[in-house]
Design a protein that fits this description.
Layout: H1 2-17, H2 36-54, E1 110-112, E2 119-121, H3 147-183, H4 187-200, H5 205-217, H6 221-234, H7 239-249, H8 254-267, H9 273-284, H10 288-300, H11 306-318, H12 322-335, H13 340-357
Antiparallel strand pairs: 1-2
Length: 358
């Protein structure tokens, strides 16, 4: 009994130590204290990592190699940026080209006659081929060379002279053959011949000028102007081209035609055709005194030209100076060949002489 009594007594004492309502044998285990040491270590490691990442003092510095003298650092590549699309600029009208300066008639072209103001036929003479270089342009002085080199160059030049002379002679013959076709009125054949010559020598000024004359004779004014302008590109001081351009402009642009004739006279004052054409242009504007003054220049040089005397007589006739008109009509008749023009002058002269007797 004592053993049982002792066991019960012991059980009662244990109940006093336990909270009420908790059955004996199911009592919860005592709570473990948190591991403060582990938490502290983890926090310290986190602080060190953050400090390493965000504080520059903890970063190890890298040594920068010294830059070599004269070597520029490579430029930083820029990100390409596409430019905004732009509108295409509107086409601007090309500026009008100034008209070519004033011009002189070539072989086979026509100059205005004195009475009717229509062009007169000018006989053409064979013209030798022009020099390859304009006289106003001087070649650059050659570089100094040894005596042997100079001698070799001179020998080479001498060897080439026969070939060059043969080529020039061939071109001259071809030009004269084309000119004969032109003077005989075979304009299409002459045109083909001149084009063949220009295929060999594109800068043949006389051939270009005569091509313009042929085009003008065929009524192709546009091509005629183009050929005369091409002449002036190769030889800006070629009077025949200025005279021919003036003839083409007499109807459409008398002012420009006068400039062309004046330029032709300035370039070739000893010529006759530009004086005749300018006088005819002035007569169409009823500027008879000015026309007579223009013609006095070649007349004062005692030029024996029937057309010149006729043009001067007509100007004096229009001015009412009958005596001078009769004088120069007679000089014209002394030089002129039989023609309808000459017959008309004979009738006019007879009329003036009969009127003077009254």
């Amino acid at each position: 009994m004592s053993i049982i009594h002792d066991a019960l007594k012991k059980a009662q004492e244990q109940r006093k130590d336990k909270p009420e309502g908790v059955p004996f044998g199911n009592a919860p285990e005592p709570k473990k204290k948190p591991p403060y040491i582990v938490i502290g270590v983890v926090a310290l490691v986190a602080v060190i990592i953050i400090a390493y990442l965000y504080i520059p003092a903890f970063h190890p510095t890298k040594a920068v190699p010294p830059r070599k003298a004269g070597v520029k650092p490579a430029p930083v590549a820029a990100v390409p940026v596409k430019p905004a699309p732009q509108k295409a600029p509107e086409a601007q009208p090309a500026p009008a080209k100034p008209a070519a300066p004033a011009v002189q008639m070539a072989a086979g072209t026509q100059a205005p006659s004195a009475v009717k103001g229509t062009p007169k036929t000018v006989d053409a003479a064979p013209v030798p081929a022009p020099k390859a270089m304009d006289a106003s342009v001087r070649p650059a002085p050659p570089a100094k060379r040894s005596k042997a080199a100079r001698q070799e160059a001179e020998d080479e030049t001498v060897r080439r002279i026969p070939a060059r002379k043969a080529e020039d002679d061939s071109i001259n013959r071809q030009y004269n053959e084309a000119l004969q076709l032109m003077n005989s009125g075979q304009l299409k054949e002459a045109q083909k011949a001149f084009l063949a010559l220009l295929g060999r020598k594109p800068d043949h000024v006389e051939a270009l000028n005569n091509m313009g004359v042929i085009c003008a004779s065929m009524g192709n004014r546009k091509d005629a102007v183009a050929y005369f302008k091409k002449v002036l590109e190769y030889r800006p001081n070629y009077p025949k081209a200025y005279n021919n351009m003036g003839l083409l402009m007499m109807t459409d642009n008398p002012g420009l035609a006068e400039e062309y004739f004046t330029k032709a006279i300035a370039l070739e004052p000893e010529g006759v055709e530009p004086y005749l054409n300018l006088a005819a242009l002035l007569r169409t504007g009823k500027k008879f005194a000015e026309a007579a003054k223009v013609l006095e220049v070649p007349i004062s040089r005692n030029v024996k030209d029937a057309s010149l005397y006729l043009a001067y007589a007509v100007a004096k006739d229009n001015m009412g100076l009958t005596a001078e008109a009769i004088r120069y009509y007679r000089q014209y008749l002394g030089l002129a060949k039989p023609s309808r023009m000459r017959d008309g002058v004979v009738e006019r002269l007879r009329y003036l002489e009969e009127r003077g007797k009254r």
